[in-house]
Amino acid sequence: MARDTLIKLDLIFISKDQSVFISEDKKLILILYVDDLLYFGETEERIQEMEATLAKEFVMTNLGESNYYLGMNMDYDRTKGICHLY
Q: What is the pLDDT along the chain (86 residues), one digit of tens a residue?
């Protein structure tokens, strides 16, 4: 099961929403909904590292930067480190 694999990768699920995981160092957030993954990281390197690790465990297709997820539009302000959902 995907949730068990994410836990083995040292990701901790948030008790209020068990589809949201955060790394122990709090520098990566991953959201899992059925077969969709969305992840945010402090640095591009951290994101690529997690993506490579996940690709060893799952068959994945990277669709690039997301502008839409689960019915919500997304907008990024990288200078402030903010992702707006609307």
A: 788 888 888 899 998 988 999 998 888 999 988 888 888 888 889 889 989 999 998 898 888 888 888 889 999 888 888 888 89
Residue type, 24: E
Distance (Å, whole) CA 41 – CA 58: 19
Residues 56, 13: Cα–Cα separation, whole Å = 20
How many domains, in total, are found in the chain? 1
- What is the maximum alpha-carbon separation in the chain? 36
Neighbours of 82 (CB within 10 A): 9
Token pair, residue 56, equals: 């060893």
Q: What is the 3-state secondary structure (H, E, C) of 39-78?
A: EEECCHHHHHHHHHHHHHHCCCCCCCCCCEECCEEEEEEC
